[in-house]
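FORM 12-B: Structure-to-Sequence Request
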């Protein structure tokens, strides 16, 4: 067993996120585990750029209300306690709804060669983000 100290929280880079987003690393696996876990906190309206993960990504919402969108236009509203699984190589984005904070645990695996599993793409347009917020019921 190993007790690990809490990692330092960092502000995420503006090149990959819109709005203010903060990441606290929780775990980075070292062979044979390749699992990485981080607590990610989104301020209202903040969200990721489009991106994909080589081995997929699991998001478990710990607080608030958020959105996850895919290239085919599907958007789901996510609430505390819910989990979304994004399959390998699926281009998606996620973040807080327009009027509330949202925090989630982001869980993903590194590639077998240890390289970065995330491919960052272009920002989500303001129009697409607004459409996602208004097309999904606020439940």
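FORM 12-B RESPONSE
SEQUENCE OUT:
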């Amino acid at each position: 067993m190993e007790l690990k100290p809490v990692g330092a929280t960092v502000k995420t880079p503006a090149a990959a996120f819109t709005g203010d987003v903060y990441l606290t690393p929780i775990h980075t696996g070292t062979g044979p585990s390749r699992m990485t876990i981080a607590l990610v906190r989104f301020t209202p309206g903040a969200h990721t750029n489009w991106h994909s993960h080589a081995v997929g990504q699991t998001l478990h919402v710990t607080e608030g209300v958020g959105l996850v969108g895919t290239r085919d236009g599907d958007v789901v509203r996510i609430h505390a306690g819910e989990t979304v699984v994004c399959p390998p190589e699926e281009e998606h984005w996620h973040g807080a709804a327009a009027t509330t904070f949202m925090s989630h645990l982001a869980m993903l695996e590194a590639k077998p060669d240890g390289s970065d599993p995330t491919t960052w793409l272009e920002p989500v347009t303001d129009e697409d983000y607004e459409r996602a917020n208004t097309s999904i019921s606020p439940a």
